[in-house]
Specification:
It is globular and about 55 Å long. Helix 1 (51-59) packs across helix 10 and helix 2 packs across helix 4. The chain has helices at residues 51-59, 85-92, 94-100, 113-124, 144-159, 162-167, 173-184, 219-227, 244-247, 249-273; strands spanning 12-15, 18-25, 34-38, 62-66, 106-111, 130-136, 205-210, 232-237. The two termini are 29 Å apart. An 8-stranded mixed sheet has the order 1-2-4-3-5-6-7-8, sandwiched between helices. The protein has one domain: Alpha/Beta hydrolase fold, catalytic domain (Rossmann fold), CATH 3.40.50. By secondary structure, it is an alpha/beta fold. The mean pLDDT is 96.
């Protein structure tokens, strides 16, 4: 392993020709599988709050978190972001992060943009280390209500207190916000669709979705269920918006704990048969 496995502040790793902030909790990759957390479109290491430690306590797995370029304390990016920025992140950066961190067995746990990146990676990159996916509020295509919610976020950023709130978590808050907002509100982005990545998944998936998510409907989950060939479990949560791990933390952790336990049992049985 070529990084320090610690949750101390200020740790960096290099991937995609950028210096990225990261933190790690729980067992090192040589001792247990690793949950690799991929944040939302306005997320960062700090914004996961105490969720990484909760995951360690719930699953016994290690947890690796990093801020993608343009977010948190990671190197900035040039704007505008390309409209295929999630695909570029999946195919051009994530493998290098996993390699640099010495990951041996991983479950990719993505939220929003991060869930999309996880799906694209598992569906397009040959990497036998990836045991499963956990997708919270994923999106594979645009929906009118989601675009409307993003435009409302733009108004809150320009005329409300959203910029001030986000500035606590991002070294360059304008790059973080405008990179995300500019891509999603570009007229050409209306036709964006990466659902074909689902067709190539061959590992178990847990999909978690809030019924009151303003950015995406259950159509996103139905897209997974209708296309996937591998085992799929879903957790559809009431009274839950776009962030299941914050809005319904107990239910989300319970679903993840049970999924990871079943994954371990299934793989032990496979080893016995072999």
């Amino acid at each position: 392993m070529s990084i320090i496995w610690s949750d101390q502040a200020g740790l960096r790793l290099n991937a995609g020709e950028k210096s990225l902030e990261y933190a790690a909790w729980g067992p090192e990759p040589s001792a247990a599988p690793t949950l690799v957390l991929l944040h939302e479109g306005l997320g960062s290491v700090a914004q996961w709050r105490d969720f990484p430690q909760q995951l360690v306590d719930a699953t016994g797995f290690g947890v690796l978190v990093y801020s993608r370029a343009g977010y948190g304390a990671s190197d900035r990016v040039e704007l505008p972001r390309p409209l295929d920025y999630m695909t570029r992140e999946a195919t051009g950066v994530l493998k290098e992060v996993l390699d640099t961190a010495g990951i041996e067995q991983a479950v990719l746990l993505g939220h929003s943009d991060g869930a999309t990146i996880a799906t694209i990676y598992a569906g397009s990159v040959s990497d036998m280390r990836i045991r499963a996916l956990i997708l919270m509020a994923p999106h594979f295509f645009t929906e009118a209500m989601g675009i409307a919610a993003i435009k409302a976020a733009g108004d809150a950023y320009n005329n409300g207190d959203l910029k001030q709130k986000l500035s606590k978590h991002h070294a360059d808050v304008d790059v973080a916000f405008q990179g995300w907002y500019g891509a999603w509100t570009d007229p050409a982005f209306k036709s964006w669709n990466v659902a074909d990545a689902i067709d190539h998944l061959r590992i178990p998936v847990l999909a978690i979705q809030g019924r009151e998510d303003p950015y995406g409907t259950l159509a996103q989950i139905q897209e997974i269920e209708s296309r996937i060939y591998s085992p799929i479990e879903t957790a559809i949560l009431d009274n839950c918006g776009h962030a299941p791990h914050r809005d319904q933390s107990h239910a989300t952790l319970d679903a993840i704990r049970e999924f990871c336990a079943r994954l371990d049992r299934m793989e032990r049985e496979i080893v016995k048969i072999a």
